[in-house]
Amino acid sequence: MSAPDEIREVVVLPPEIEAARAKVRRRRSIALALGLALFALTFYVLTIVKMGPALFDRAL
C-alpha cells in the first residue's frame, strides 16, 4: 500500500465530549456482557431441560 497523499490533522475533542463518549461506550459494553451472559445461561438451562429428569437418576 502506498502512503496517503495528504496527512489528516488530529482533532482533539473537549474533555466533556470524551467523557460522554466513554460513558456511552461503557454502557454498551455492560449491555453486551449482560446479553452474552443471558445467552449462555439460556443454552445451559435448555440443555439441562432437554436431558430431562433421567439426568439425575443415573449411577455415579
TrEMBL record:
Keyword Transmembrane: yes
Keywords annotated in UniProt: Membrane, Transmembrane, Transmembrane helix
Bilayer-crossing regions: 30-49
Protein name from the UniProt record: Protoheme IX farnesyltransferase
Organism of this sequence: Devosia yakushimensis
